Amino acid sequence: MEGLTKIADLGKPRVVIVGGGFGGLALAKSLADAPVQVVLIDKLNYHAFQPLLYQVATAGLNADSIVSPFRKILTEQENFYFRMAEVLSIDATAQVVETSIGLLRFDYLVLATGTTSNYFGDKLMEKTSISLKSVSDAIELRNTLLSNFEQALQIGDVEQLNSLLDFVIVGGGPTGVEMAGALSELRAHVFPRDYRELDLKQMDIHLIQSGPVLLKGMSAEASAHALKYLEELGVRVWLDNRVTSYDGYTVTLKSGERLITRTLIWAAGVTGAPIAGLDPAALLKSNRYQVNEFNQVKGYNHVFAIGDIAQMATPTYPEGHPQVAQPAIQQGELLGDNLKRVLSQQPMQPFHYEDKGTMATIGRHRAVGDIQLFGKQYHITGWLGWLAWSFVHVLALVSFRNRLSVFLAWGWNYLTQDKGMRYIIGKAKAPIKEKEVDVKAIV
Ligand SMILES: Cc1cc2nc3c(=O)[nH]c(=O)nc-3n(C[C@H](O)[C@H](O)[C@H](O)COP(=O)(O)OP(=O)(O)OC[C@H]3O[C@@H](n4cnc5c(N)ncnc54)[C@H](O)[C@@H]3O)c2cc1C
């Protein structure tokens, strides 16, 4: 390791936060009034609101409606410093992290690096499919979706046409379900106007779920409604099935069926994004760091992990908290308070997760939600669920500009049944396996 990063030394304890997702950002904000220097490091210069990535991918929102630069979010916070860099390794004994721009000393280190897509070791799947973990993924998916339709206008062969118009989504969690709903909205309301020369009945949307229900982890009522809604929208849902292989063109299912598609969307799971250097005993099979009730990584006093990358076993959550935004935010906020307690020689408080509920939307006017209110669980579905989902998501966005931009885009989409961000900017996913293309002879 060589070369110190050029950053002011304030002579105050330095808290280095790696990752400005929901957890890292909540922590940085909660340290605003603390006598510390807060250094946030992220390989991106913006916070991305991942729950709405699928809307960017399906032309419902512009990417800049769901992202916000860290420097803008925390511009008023005097103890806040940001460096755009990737953290490569940690030396906990020397209290130094190695980054792509040099070494950085820390007094307290907080890992909030989230997750990456989990392909369960299938390298071909990783290469051929499109995941939905980042804004670049969402834009690539939108480009691919629209490029497929542009190409399809020139294709005569039925199988090749289907390979372009059909979509296979793997994973029946919230991302897969929401994606399937949004694609079916495009098929029903937008593409018939844009592509009058194509027969939209040829566009099939398949959702493959390895378990017996959709939205595992939500109530039976929510799962059943999600299935009903998707079937009403004409999505082919395959339960208790699995993709065994995909070569960029042919999908083979465990049940033996084959589907043809050039676009397989991988929403089947995530795995932690740990950083080299800590004791391997602290890393669990899930690739998440084992943390105690104060979010301290096992074996370390000054190294913490929060959010998706942290696994805190509790009686209610023996496998750790769900990898969703709320545990990350709540852990970030509590850790901020706890670091202030440590600095004023007070004991830290243990983390208790307050589950506020889970929601998923499935196209227009359809959503499911399990909401916790005053210690009771309520189920909401249909129109009410959809309104509640829209309200919660607009409020959860990180800046007023994002909220206004999403609100206006949704209002416009609602009134016109249109999705106006149908741009192909940048690259689409390159087809892995070029097939002979039977271009229509006479155009
Ligand atoms: C498509 C999608 C839809 C979702 N929908 C919902 C939903 O509806 N509701 C919900 O509650 N949750 C949802 N989630 C999950 C939710 O987004 C995550 O649980 C949440 O983002 C976790 O927050 P985090 O702070 O732990 O990590 P993240 O938000 O993932 O942030 C991690 C940050 O760390 C940075 N980073 C990673 N490694 C390094 C490194 N080595 N060096 C520097 N920086 C690094 C990344 O750039 C990123 O900014 C969804 C997730 C996805 C992908």
Characteristics:
443 residues; FAD/NAD(P)-binding domain; five-stranded parallel β-sheet; disordered C terminus; binds flavin-adenine dinucleotide
Quick gist of this model?
The chain is an alpha/beta fold. Among the domains are: 14-43 and 85-117 and 270-343, FAD/NAD(P)-binding domain, CATH 3.50.50.60; 123-268, FAD/NAD(P)-binding domain. The protein has eleven helices and 25 strands.
Q: Any chance you could write out the topology, listing elements then pairs?
A:
Elements: E1 14-18, H1 22-30, E2 37-42, E3 46-48, H2 53-57, E4 67-69, H3 70-73, E5 80-84, E6 87-91, E7 96-99, E8 102-105, E9 108-111, E10 115-117, H4 123-128, E11 130-131, H5 135-152, H6 158-165, E12 167-170, H7 174-194, E13 205-208, H8 220-232, E14 236-238, E15 243-246, E16 250-253, E17 258-260, E18 263-266, E19 270-272, E20 289-290, E21 303-305, E22 310-311, H9 325-343, E23 357-361, E24 367-373, E25 376-381, H10 382-396, H11 400-416
The structure holds flavin-adenine dinucleotide.
